[in-house]
């Protein structure tokens, strides 16, 4: 089946009120189109800017948090709840990004628990996985990703609310994009793993590629049968993000 192309922009801890307003203004006036179909687009500014982004951004583009907690409102200093996001019309969150796994120490268990809570409570999740350079060089890419996926499956989340982002850690922010074949091979392995959940989940779940995607490399990557879009970091802060949104054939 045809899966709708999906492009996420992860601003990470970048931007100011004025620079994010510029990005929003640029997206608002851009023609989001392609030969095939308009992509589903979600941008993810830092939490401080979620609400002004949602208020000023065109309605066809959704807004994502970069993290969410797995408890209802309460005494959890520094966290944001699913209901607070939904109350502000923030309909997505990123979870399991490698920067949160490695720098903030989030384990597979923490990421899976948050994903279960978010999806059960109606939030879409861009769920990230990926291997380090050492893991790739040791030939462990698929086993690392399988372990991350197995942890998620064990929580029985709502797969209809999940988009998977495969992001090799060695390709993030480094300018070293995975080759189209390297990316496609892992995406195919993820698609095959998803068959173990169900054929429907395997057919319908979008699997994005992330890691140094830009307007020059996105076209080739988007032609791969198991690449259903991108999670873009640095390039999502630039006007050329629109070219990535429109790149699929
Ligand atoms: O979430 C986005 C990824 O970490 C990719 O970042 P990048 O496009 O700057 O390499």
From TrEMBL:
Record flagged with keyword Transmembrane helix: no
Enzyme Commission number(s): 5.3.1.1
Enzyme superclass (EC): isomerase
GO CC annotations on file: cytosol
The protein's annotated pathway: Carbohydrate biosynthesis; gluconeogenesis; Carbohydrate degradation; glycolysis; D-glyceraldehyde 3-phosphate from glycerone phosphate: step 1/1
Example GO biological process: glycerol catabolic process
SUPFAM superfamilies, alphabetized: Triosephosphate isomerase (TIM) (SSF51351)
Family per similarity comment: Belongs to the triosephosphate isomerase family.
This protein's name: Triosephosphate isomerase
């Amino acid at each position: 089946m045809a899966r709708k192309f999906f492009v996420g922009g992860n601003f990470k801890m970048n931007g100011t009120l004025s620079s994010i307003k510029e990005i929003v203004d640029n997206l608002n006036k851009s023609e989001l189109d392609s030969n095939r179909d308009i992509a589903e687009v979600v941008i993810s500014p830092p939490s401080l800017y979620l609400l002004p982004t949602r208020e000023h951004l065109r309605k066809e583009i959704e807004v994502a948090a970069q993290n969410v907690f797995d408890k209802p409102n309460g005494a959890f200093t520094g966290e944001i709840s699913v209901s607070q996001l939904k109350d502000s019309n923030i309909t997505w969150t990123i979870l399991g990004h490698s920067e949160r796994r490695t720098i903030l120490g989030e384990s597979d268990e923490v990421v899976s628990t948050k994903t279960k809570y978010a999806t059960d409570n109606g939030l879409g999740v861009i769920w990230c996985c990926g291997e380090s350079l050492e893991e790739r060089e040791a030939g462990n890419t698929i086993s690392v990703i399988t372990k991350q996926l197995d942890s998620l499956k064990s929580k029985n989340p709502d797969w209809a609310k999940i988009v998977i982002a495969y992001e090799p850690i060695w390709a993030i922010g480094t300018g070293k994009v995975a080759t189209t074949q390297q990316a496609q091979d892992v995406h195919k392995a993820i698609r095959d793993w998803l068959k173990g959940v169900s054929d429907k989940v395997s057919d319908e779940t979008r699997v994005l590629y992330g890691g140094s995607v830009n307007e020059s490399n996105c076209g080739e990557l988007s032609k791969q049968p198991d690449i259903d879009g991108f999670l873009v970091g640095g390039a999502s802060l630039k006007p050329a993000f629109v070219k990535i949104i429109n790149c699929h054939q």
